[in-house]
Prior knowledge:
The complex is a heterotrimer of chains A (about 100), B (about 475) and C (about 475).
Chain A: H1 5-14, H2 21-38, E1 62-63, H3 73-76, E2 83-84, E3 87-91
Antiparallel strand pairs in A: 2-3
Chain B: H1 9-18, H2 23-41, E1 44-47, H3 49-57, E2 72-76, H4 103-110, E3 114-119, H5 153-160, E4 166-171, H6 177-183, E5 186-189, E6 209-214, H7 217-227, H8 245-249, E7 257-261, H9 271-286, E8 290-294, H10 302-317, H11 336-347, H12 350-363, H13 369-392, E9 395-399, H14 415-420, H15 426-431, E10 435-442, E11 448-455, H16 460-472
Helix pairs in contact in B: 2-3, 7-16, 10-12, 10-13
Chain C: E1 3-14, H1 39-42, E2 51-52, H2 53-65, E3 69-70, E4 77-80, E5 90-93, E6 100-109, E7 112-125, E8 129-132, E9 136-140, E10 147-153, H3 160-176, E11 189-199, E12 209-212, H4 217-236, E13 245-249, E14 254-257, E15 270-271, H5 282-291, H6 296-307, H7 311-318, H8 321-333, H9 337-355, H10 366-377, H11 383-396, H12 400-407, H13 415-428, H14 430-437, H15 441-454, H16 461-474
Parallel strand pairs in C: 12-13
Antiparallel strand pairs in C: 1-10, 1-11, 3-6, 4-5, 4-15, 6-7, 7-10, 8-9, 11-12, 13-14
Amino acid sequence: MAINKDTVKYTANLARIELSDEELDHFTGQLDRILAYVDKLSTLNVADLKPTSHVLKMKNVYREDAVKHSLPASEVIQNAPLCENNLFKVPKIIDIEA
Amino acid sequence: MMELNTLTAHNLIELLKKGDISPLDICNNIINRIEKTEKSLAALAHFDKEKALERCGNLRKTAEKGGLWGIPIFIKDNICVKDELTTCSSKILKGFKPPYNATVIDKLTSLDAILMGKTNMDEFAFGSSTETSCYGPTRNPWDLERIPGGSSGGSAAAVAGDEAIFALGSDTGGSIRQPAGVCGVVGLKPTYGRVSRYGLIAFASSLDQIGPITKDVEDAAILLKAISGHDEMDSTSADMPVPDYLSGMKKSIKGLKIGVPKEYFIDGLDKEVKDSIKAAIEKLEKLGAVCEDMSLPHTEYAVSVYYLVATAEASSNLARFDGVQYGLRADNIKSMMDMYKKTRKEGFGDEAKRRIILGTFALSSGYYDAYYSKALKVRTLIRTDFDKAFQKFDAIVTPTSPTAAFKIGEKISDPLTMYLSDIFTISANLAGIPGISIPCGFTKNNLPIGLQILGKPFDEETILKVAYNYEQNTDWHKRKPKL
Amino acid sequence: MSYEIVIGLEVHLQLNTKSKVFCGCSTDFGSAPNTQTCPVCLGFPGSLPVLNRQALELGARVAIALSCQIAKEIRFDRKNYFYPDLPKDYQISQFDQPLAQHGILNIVTGESEKKIRIRRVHLEEDTGKLFHQKDHSLIDFNRSGMPLLEIVSEPDMNSPEEAYLYLTALKSILEYIDVSDCNMEEGSLRCDANISIRKKGDSVLGTKTEIKNMNSFKGVKAALEYESKRQMDSLEGGKRIVQETRLYNAEKCVTEPMRSKEEAHDYRYFPEPDLVPFDFEESLLERIHKDIPELPEPKKNRFIKDYLLSNYDAAVIVSDKNTANYFEKCVGLYDNPKAVANWLMGDISAYIKENNVLIKDLNLKPEHLADMLKMIDSGVITGKIAKTLLIEVIKTGIDPRKLVKEKGLEQISDVSLLEATTSQVISENPKSAEDFKNGKENALMFLVGKVMQKTKGRADPSKVNGMLREKLKGAE
């Protein structure tokens, strides 16, 4: 078994997605099948290979330290589910750090 | 009035130049068509007739006009258009109107193209059938019981169904080419870095590209030129000049060396598709190309690599959909954690959840080396296959998909089967090379078959040249579905 | 049981670039909420980061100043976790190819020195700011995307005092190379601490706790003092230390465990696909190296050698770059380093502290101080007058020589006038005169004071002292 229910549950929690028991069952089966397929890769010896995280051989792309216009606050909050005085409003967070 | 909506952009540009028609004529034709066919096709995610007419009315009337003046275009719903609904066909972005334009949108509007509306897609581009859209599936104009491909199914169906002149799609594992293939239109995925990704709502950052979906190769060249170029807002955008694709494509393909990878002619390949491709290869040889069998030995690993790399990046890219700043926020939430979990539970569809979980897993502690890191190394092998191949060949041809369009509902319950339908298109994204799909035949059920042409990085000219030459010597592109 | 305290510090520094690290929003402090944001630093869907060149160069400057090795290839990674002040729910940071590693910071503990190793220096983006209300929280993203440099030390500090010295030495260097405001109260410099205890001689580290929420260097020291004692008490009492994050409560001067159950973070670091790798050309690194001014440590050693200052005096003067420059400029005009140092560390320092000003803004320029000291030497003014003159120059900005003339502050050199005044004071204060004759030294000080009063401080106290003594003793 490449992945079991506990791992799916743990991972879904890491990803902040709540799953119903039914979804947990269903997804575990599907993900297990997918990971079993993906297991093909374990037959390859890649120890000496460099990983390709970027296909372009580019380096050193910068911008200069110049100030550009910011968005007006009204546009920033235009999609906010809840806001107050141009601040985004969310449920209280426990554990206050200054 | 001739049905202007059935014409290509280059046809319309000519007619507009001559003064035979006006942009309003084109818009009206499009709107009429949509009113007739959209109920069956469901290709559009957001279309507002009044807004479209308003944009048409606001076209500049000065002597100086942009190269796409008066030409309407539809945009896939994962590309940001300022103050217009941009939802990636997902509930979690319900109501989202970005306060900014994607760079490609700015380019199009500076050329005076008319933004007509947004097309339907698989939710967050996760899919090959446009069945995972929160708005419901789009249908293939050639057979309304069948999928239009995905994830840019809406764009492909709209173009094939003449609701659109041309459209933009996005391609991460084949999402432009595969729908173009099963809808009988042209779809081009540019080299990674050719077109700016700024404003494209990201799926897999190292694989995504925006590209044209059009009725013929000339339109693809026109649209590609319009959207290509370096963008200082995108660190992964190549600082390379954009060639004149139109003149390049009309050149002959005599002597061009074309590779035919044996790994793409596998058991799962439908016989009718295989026969069409073989016939197409013969055609190319008649046109002077030299076609030769070759090998891309790591092809069989591409789907595995993709479903680890792409999902890993996606899991991170989609973390921002959390109910805080935009989109859906669940009701009855008791805490911050509750808000995150409920919002993402309600807002994401099944496929999105699956991919996010899979991607999170591939990156997680204890699994990173075995999955994500390994996949990145195998990606090097796949890329090297192409580097080696392109030392000998100028282009590579393959089928676009193993089968023609399958029925709606046929593969949706088995993700792995769905994933395998991307088998021919995925490698190009992993290697970052350009690819185009053009129609090369029909099944006996009158379903389109796509021919894929892959090229060297930043050599869109060659694949356009092969595609154009083939197209102009065949009639496939002239056929239209009966809607 | 003899215990050893082991401390490592993580400092986050806001770099003083004009714009943010991945976008062009301004880095100004104190603007209205969400008015210095854009799709990039808000993490809006479709947005992409582009690195601010200056941020990377400032980071390199810090790394070089701390004698670190700059990486051959620099890469950014995503640090994935969910928190409402993190708009993308990942932070662009650096994991396994950071900007620099393996540096050194010297601290001076009493008369000895200790090398604290720097493990790594890396660049990352800052988060937004949360404001907590009764039953909800509010978020301002102005701070999101500010360039942060994280400086991580090895756990080489063995007392809260060493931690404090590390922070002051670090701040001193950072101010010298002008990369940040370095202000803990304003948040441009933040510090988290890791602390553990082990038996002396043990090579294995004890279980560590992470301490957060300290708002000043003194706070860091106090927090570590409390925590080290807490851990020692626990161990003595046979209890094990729980690995946890604790918050410092400055009001109660204690550390407290966080209220929510903490989950171990799995940050799932992976290379940031939206940013390409970076490297530095040798010539650029050389230029950055050259542009770094003489740092506090070498400057201090030079002051000790060239100006014969004590270790302590030199350390105090170089701890602030502007003070050091002031000192050297003054000494260049008036060759008595000790005297200059005394005035700088005495009256001038007192004024600066009391009035909360900066030495570079003082009207009393190095040349003014030099002049004043020359006037004392040549007897134009007394030392006492100089003290008030100093304040006058600072307040008015008028040249000291001019002020002395305008206000008639010259020392009284007329002997007969002095004689007359001292005689007058003796006759006006017979009891004190008598007291002195009877052996009370204090009485003389009183009489000297009276003469100083009458002469408005313009008499030389030692001359006056001599005159009074002679007159009174002589009367015997």
